[in-house]
């Protein structure tokens, strides 16, 4: 058959090309590749009407005639040698078939493309806007046909609902149909035009790569064109865009905004998008249910309905809120009343009746900072404690105000979380204004109102008593105000013996009219206001469409702008200054600018889009808007960010004494005893310094003092610190591409051996002698030194090289190395900064895994959990040699503060069994990563121990070529998904995972889930 159609192509178009058959529902489609170009040959079904093909060809021609700036990527019709758009050719069975040829686009179906970013969806919308504007002037007789996929004719499904057996599903579809019928008049009043009518996820092509942002490369198949209001086109595309999206409403908003950017939508059209989208999904599922009944043996028909049913059943989003979101995305006001209402409120602000009564001027009240940055309440951002909720303000303050739009970590209830992972997004941004005042304080209606709703929400950390008032502007526009944390009995019933003040309203009832100044409620005690410091949360809403009486008091920062348009700053109603009461967080831009202007430019920022963190807790970090991140990268907060025990011992020590090691103090001996309790007994002398760099400097001095020699052997790509001496031994620095420009080179007393990398190095895992062979390089250097009459001071290495690519050397490597070094009189120095203190799960130190006892051990980073501490531990004889020299003193090393912190960190590792946790979580992580390795060819190696993990990415399994670009992509995408990891290795292709040791199973699963998702994207982008 292919030969037949090859001949046809040569005959009709004069083209020589190879053919491959493509999918097609009714017609035959072939991809045609000539040496220079690609086409699609369309062989129409027997009996196909010429007008049907003519319509498509002319519409494509019409679209190609538009100005370049508004050009939509649709296929170009290739005319025959005779200048026709299409012709008739007989198929192998002798049947006449209409054939036509169009240009072919590069790209993948949107259905299979990943990631489906907001930018990509917006671009699709923008093309669709152009397309609908251009098709408005296109007409063809064939467009006027009866067609089940024309949304204007979709009422046919009503008569077919009997085919849906599942009652829940049937109810959903029935309600969609009812809603559609209610809109038919509006729809019929809209102008009709030619529309594409089937921008589904298989008719959209996308192109992108690791270094090229994905873009829409083609919109194809105009075979479903018909006449309908242009919004139908948008709704149909929307019906595919929302499926399979974690945040479908955001995706839809991007599409609508894209359309609006090139073909502005009316408010009426925006209102129709959601109901029409649902109607399209209803048509799809009813159609495929009918097809499934006709084809009971084809399971694919039922399976293909799955995503649409799942969406209809699981995403019960409020149409009113979606409409608000779509209007906002288009820059349209919330509703027609919003603007005039705000203007009226602004004009009269200052003259409304004071909420707390005429005697209290809220403008005199101080603002209290409850922000992510400003307060450490709650200490645990996942669980606010009752005493914390009741200590939000200084108890000496009688009156204080809490900011509008302030990001807060106090909302720790489940209801504030938007996902199922511990670090899923949460609603942090306060959408009201708080007034802190004593319980019992009376609230006066700021202006005339009708009581809209009264409730007592008794759950902990909810509102307790809450009242919603409805107001009406002189223009007749309605708006609403909400007051939460009230004494429920003050609004729901009259208490026996309660004294009433003038104008006081008792037994507030829904529908009751209030005049400005009427007392309508009182502030509640913590026992009945949800458990909070007495205050009232005041919120304004320009509409309650879609949210009813369940207003979100705090919103997701990513949705803050939308919600601001629904619930503006209530300062207007409270006669307060908008600028004073609206929170603005520390500016990320400013922080970046100052850094750029005044910091050394070789101080690197992590990630393509730098992040600013203001709070940490365990293995989580929070940015300036309170967005949570899972920290799978930072090893310094070994026992978790902001550990309360560390904070407490540090604070207590600072108020007692913090001086230096020239005085006796029990904290110093306690720290030494703690450190030594984990060391082999031969290592019994400690030195305390301030950093890993300083500790390695000291280690070098010990080696020189003890051996009287200077020569050092160390592996390639090692990192030991930022000081002159440690940079001298850090090949990662002095052998880096920028070393020369930095005035660095390899000193003549430093000798490099290969990193004992048994995955990519010259001796591999299948070689039982790999450890010995790598160690042989040390022996060779020693031999050369001997020949040159030089003497060895020692060998220094990170036990598991970290910047070298999270390498675990062969198990006997250090045994062989140490044997060689010692026989040459040198010292063996183990840098355990990255590997020590239980991170490896199975071992407290890396050298235990290698079954060696070093002469000098260097500890740093994690031992202070963020406080700068370095420790050197050595043998007494070495210390004795060093003691012959001048006094050793480090001003801050071994300060009382450092000692209590270091001791506490080590105790916490024990008390919280963090080494066990590293072992358990490591197992889970490795099992998951190995599973991903089986599924994703670019994962070449997964290595490490416990929570010291490297994932080596490759672009070719045979050569193991390092996939640097993939690692960069993955690291940055994971950060966008709010999970931190890094990349390392000489080629920067090894994903580095080394979280605080507190990480839990759900977090590990979260990481694996997201990594899988991002790896799928990689598969698509590198295909
Ligand atoms: C293995 C190793 N040693 C030493 C250091 C230097 O420690 P510091 O930055 O505390 O001086 C580092 C820092 O990254 C390190 O990773």
Task: Walk me through this protein's architecture.
The chain has 1023 residues and is of the alpha+beta class. 35% of the residues lie in helices and 18% in strands. The protein is built from 28 helices and 39 strands. The strands form 9 sheets. An 8-stranded mixed beta sheet has the order 12-13-15-22-19-18-17-20. A 7-stranded mixed beta sheet has the order 27-33-32-31-30-28-29, with helices on both faces. The longest helix has 28 residues, at 267-294. The mean pLDDT is 95. The site of pyridoxal-5'-phosphate has 15 residues, from helix 18.
SSE topology:
Elements: H1 2-13, E1 18-22, E2 28-33, E3 38-43, H2 50-64, E4 77-78, E5 86-90, E6 96-103, E7 108-109, H3 118-135, H4 167-189, E8 193-195, E9 204-209, E10 212-219, E11 226-228, H5 230-241, H6 248-262, H7 267-294, H8 299-314, H9 319-329, H10 338-348, E12 367-368, H11 386-389, E13 400-402, E14 429-430, E15 433-436, E16 442-444, E17 449-457, E18 464-472, E19 478-486, H12 488-492, E20 513-514, E21 519-522, E22 535-541, E23 554-555, H13 560-566, H14 578-581, H15 588-598, E24 613-617, E25 620-623, E26 628-631, H16 644-656, H17 666-677, E27 685-689, H18 692-707, E28 711-715, H19 724-729, H20 731-734, E29 750-753, H21 770-787, E30 792-798, H22 813-823, E31 827-831, H23 846-849, E32 856-859, E33 870-874, H24 876-883, H25 896-911, H26 914-935, E34 939-945, E35 948-956, E36 961-962, H27 964-976, E37 979-980, E38 982-984, E39 990-993, H28 1001-1022
Parallel strand pairs: 12-13, 26-37, 28-29, 28-30, 30-31, 31-32
Antiparallel strand pairs: 1-2, 2-3, 3-6, 4-6, 5-6, 7-9, 8-11, 9-10, 13-15, 14-23, 15-22, 16-21, 17-18, 17-20, 18-19, 19-22, 24-25, 25-26, 27-33, 32-33, 34-35, 35-36, 35-39, 38-39
The protein binds pyridoxal-5'-phosphate.
Pyridoxal-5'-phosphate binds at residues 691-693, 696, 719-722, 798, 802, 831, 833-834, 860-861.
């Amino acid at each position: 058959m292919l030969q037949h159609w090859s001949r046809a192509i040569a005959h009709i178009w004069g083209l020589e090309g190879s053919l491959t058959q493509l999918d097609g529902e009714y017609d035959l489609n072939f991809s045609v590749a000539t040496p220079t170009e690609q086409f699609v040959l369309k062989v129409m079904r027997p009996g196909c009407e010429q007008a049907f093909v003519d319509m498509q060809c002319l519409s494509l021609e019409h679209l190609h005639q538009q100005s370049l700036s508004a050009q939509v990527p649709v296929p170009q019709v290739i005319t025959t040698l005779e200048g026709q758009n299409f012709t008739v050719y007989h198929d192998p069975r002798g049947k006449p078939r209409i054939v036509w040829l169009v240009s072919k686009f590069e790209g993948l179906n949107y259905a299979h493309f990943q990631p489906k970013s907001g930018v990509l969806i917006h671009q699709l919308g923008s093309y669709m806007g152009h397309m609908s504007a251009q098709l408005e002037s296109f007409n063809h007789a064939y467009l006027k046909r009866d067609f089940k996929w024309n949304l204007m004719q979709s009422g046919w499904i009503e008569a077919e609902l009997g085919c849906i057996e599942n009652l829940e599903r049937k109810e959903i579809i029935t309600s969609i149909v009812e809603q559609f019928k209610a809109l038919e008049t509006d729809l019929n009043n809209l102008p009709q035009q030619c529309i594409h009518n089937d921008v589904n996820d298989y008719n959209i092509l996308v192109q992108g790569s690791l270094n090229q942002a994905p873009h829409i490369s083609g919109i194809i198949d105009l075979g479903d064109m018909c006449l309908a209001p242009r919004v139908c086109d948008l709704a149909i595309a929307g019906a595919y865009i929302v499926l399979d999206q974690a945040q479908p409403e955001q995706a839809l908003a991007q599409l609508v905004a894209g359309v609006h950017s090139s073909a502005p939508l009316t408010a009426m059209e925006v209102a129709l998008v959601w109901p029409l989208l649902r109607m399209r999904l209803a048509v799809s599922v009813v159609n495929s249910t009918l097809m499934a009944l006709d084809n009971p043996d084809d399971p694919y028909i039922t399976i293909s309905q799955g995503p649409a049913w799942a969406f209809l059943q699981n995403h019960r989003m409020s149409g009113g809120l979606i409409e608000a979101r779509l209007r906002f995305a288009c820059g349209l006001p919330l509703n027609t009343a919003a603007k005039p209402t705000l203007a009226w409120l602004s004009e009269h602000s200052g003259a409304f009746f004071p909420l707390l009564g005429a005697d209290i001027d809220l403008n005199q009240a101080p603002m209290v900072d409850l922000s992510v940055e400003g307060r450490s309440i709650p200490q645990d951002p996942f669980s606010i404690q009752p005493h914390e909720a009741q200590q939000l303000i200084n108890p000496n303050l009688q009156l204080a105000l809490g900011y509008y739009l302030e990001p807060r970590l106090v909302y720790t209830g489940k209801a504030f979380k938007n996902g199922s992972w511990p670090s899923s997004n949460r609603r942090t941004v306060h959408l009201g204004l708080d007034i802190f005042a004593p319980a019992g304080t009376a609230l006066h209606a700021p202006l005339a109102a009708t009581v809209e709703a009264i409730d007592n929400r008794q759950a902990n950390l909810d509102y307790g008593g809450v009242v919603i008032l409805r107001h009406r502007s002189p223009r007749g526009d309605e708006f609403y105000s909400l007051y939460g944390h009230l004494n429920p009995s003050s609004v729901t019933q009259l208490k026996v013996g309660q004294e009433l003040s003038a104008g006081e309203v008792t037994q507030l009832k829904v529908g009751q009219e209030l005049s400005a100044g009427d007392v309508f409620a009182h502030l509640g005690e913590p026992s009945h206001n949800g458990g909070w410091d007495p205050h009232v949360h005041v919120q304004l809403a320009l509409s309650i469409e879609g949210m009813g009486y369940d207003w979100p008091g705090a919103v997701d920062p990513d949705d803050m702008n939308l919600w601001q348009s629904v619930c503006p700053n209530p300062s207007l109603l409270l006669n307060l200054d908008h600028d004073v009461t609206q929170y603005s967080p520390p500016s990320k831009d400013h922080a970046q600018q100052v850094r750029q202007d005044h910091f050394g430019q070789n101080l690197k920022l992590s990630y393509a889009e730098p992040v600013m963190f203001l709070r940490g807790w365990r293995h989580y970090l929070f940015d300036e808007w309170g967005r949570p991140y899972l920290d799978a990268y930072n090893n310094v907060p070994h026992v978790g960010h902001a550990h309360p025990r560390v904070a407490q011992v540090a604070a207590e020590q600072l108020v007692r004494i913090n001086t230096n090691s020239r005085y006796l103090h029990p904290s110093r001996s306690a720290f030494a005893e703690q450190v030594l309790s984990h060391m082999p007994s031969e290592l019994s002398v400690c030195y305390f310094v301030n950093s890993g760099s300083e500790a390695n400097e000291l280690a070098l001095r010990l080696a020189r003092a003890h051996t009287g020699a200077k020569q050092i052997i160390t592996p390639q790509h090692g990192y030991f610190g930022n000081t002159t001496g440690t940079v001298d031994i850090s090949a990662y620095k002095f052998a880096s591409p920028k070393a020369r420009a930095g005035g660095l080179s390899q000193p003549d007393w430093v000798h490099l051996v290969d990193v004992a990398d048994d995955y990519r190095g010259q001796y591999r895992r299948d070689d039982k002698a790999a450890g010995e062979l790598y160690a042989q390089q040390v022996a060779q250097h020693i031999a050369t030194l001997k020949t040159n009459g030089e003497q060895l001071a020692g060998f220094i290495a990170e036990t598991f090289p970290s910047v070298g690519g999270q390498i675990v050397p062969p198990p006997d490597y250090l045994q062989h190395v140490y044997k060689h070094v010692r026989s040459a009189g040198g010292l063996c120095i183990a840098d355990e900064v990255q590997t020590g203190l239980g991170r490896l799960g199975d071992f407290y130190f890396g050298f235990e895994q290698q079954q060696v006892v070093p002469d000098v051990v260097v500890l740093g980073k994690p031992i202070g959990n963020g406080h700068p501490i370095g420790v050197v531990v050595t043998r007494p004889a070495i210390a004795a040699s060093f003691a012959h020299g001048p006094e050793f003193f480090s001003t801050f090393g071994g300060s009382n503060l450092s000692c209590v912190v270091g001791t506490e960190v080590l105790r916490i590792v024990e008390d919280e069994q963090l080494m066990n946790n590293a072992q358990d979580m490591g197992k889970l992580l490795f099992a998951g990563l190995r599973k991903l390795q089986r599924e994703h060819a670019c994962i070449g190696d997964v290595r490490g121990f416990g929570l010291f993990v490297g994932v080596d990415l490759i672009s070719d399994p045979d050569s193991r070529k390092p996939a640097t670009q993939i690692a960069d992509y993955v690291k940055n995408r994971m950060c966008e998904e709010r999970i931190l990891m890094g990349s390392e290795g000489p080629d920067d292709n090894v994903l580095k995972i080394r979280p605080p040791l507190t990480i839990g199973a759900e977090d590990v699963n979260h990481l694996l889930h997201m990594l899988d998702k991002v790896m799928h994207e990689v598969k698509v982008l590198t295909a």
